[in-house]
């Protein structure tokens, strides 16, 4: 990229013990601790200075744990709603849009806020890091990492459920450095995670890390960085649909940084996150006041996932219970988990299209549906400062503008519970130069 970049200065800290330590490369857990906890980045710049627009996502580099910048990024865009706000009777609704909407300056060609994490995670990597990055995904995350890694020649192995292959569309063919394996039809995101865990046991492969990767969370937190620096204030409420809850955890952490910044207020946004019924495991645990996730039969969970429109909201093992995870974020922010079914989501998507003028992903529609219901049930004040995180949109519009759509084909489709040996044999044939 043409703009000047200086490596971000930060240290890492255990959420549980508050012990601080230096990032020695690709650390996902605190040094010397056994109890599961997230780690956080503590940045040298306590007050955020936003860079030039041409820097894309990296205009927020001071609060990203990165060693380099990569080409092609786009930042979230925040604007004050008129159409949807009027429909819902809200006077101070702000939309943070992640996707394709050139008129508003939104140019994420994967049409998902997962781009924010992909550019941050890959920016955390140093150019010297050897091996193949492994990412499990229900769809949007895979599309984002595939695009970023393809454009920047970073070896990548994706693990995605076969039933979600339609999410792996691209505006141009991908570089051969990106490979895809799948868990067979009838499997879900958890099965894809299991497959990826077998992959990272092989020499030359390393896990992206999910919610444990500070770069993933702080990349997703740029939605809040966009909102607060645009509005010049910390919102009262934050609405987003969640599959793992990582984006909401990231929003909470960004909020805490802005309180320390001191220029935008001292309030904590109430996190109002939502799941797509009937797959609502975090909602069930939250309503039971349980830090632990409640037991759920694997086959029943897969059946529920098949039923929901928003397939990306289908994580059976989310970072909910872990210290610093969603349970803690909701308690600290006095937040809540809401639910919306497919029909409510479809109606909300149509409402957004008519009121705001762009199409949105099913997951974002669940967030809109939950906001609508929260307003109707007086769970939010109509004059409150509300941030609505539209996590994906503009896909239909972009596809209509493309001459051709390219799909990533799987190199191998595994049974739901393959052996480690079967995975090893396939990976050796896919990445023959991984240990070269």
Number of helices: 14
Distance between the termini: 29 Å
**Unreliable residue stretches:** none
Q: Which sheet architecture does the biggest sheet show?
A: 7 strands, mixed
Instruction: Work out the strand percent.
Output: 15-25%
Number of E-type strands: 17
Number of domains: 2
Looking at the structure, the CATH topology of the largest domain is Rossmann fold
CATH architecture classification of the largest domain? 3-Layer(aba) Sandwich
Which CATH top level class of the largest domain fits?
Answer: Alpha Beta
What oligomeric assembly is this protein in? single chain
- Identify the overall geometry: globular
Mean pLDDT: 94
- In helices, the fraction of residues equals 25-40%
Estimated structural class: alpha/beta
Radius of gyration: 20 Å
List the topology elements.
Elements: E1 10-14, E2 20-21, E3 39-43, E4 77-80, H1 83-88, E5 93-101, E6 106-107, H2 114-124, E7 132-136, H3 140-151, E8 156-161, E9 169-170, E10 178-183, H4 189-199, E11 205-207, H5 214-220, H6 222-231, E12 237-241, H7 246-261, E13 270-276, H8 281-287, H9 298-307, H10 326-333, E14 336-340, H11 342-356, H12 362-376, E15 386-393, H13 395-401, E16 406-407, E17 412-414, H14 420-430
Parallel strand pairs: 5-15, 7-8, 7-11, 8-10, 10-17, 12-13, 12-15, 13-14
Antiparallel strand pairs: 1-2, 1-3, 4-5, 5-6, 9-16
Helix pairs in contact: 2-3, 2-5, 5-7, 6-7, 11-12
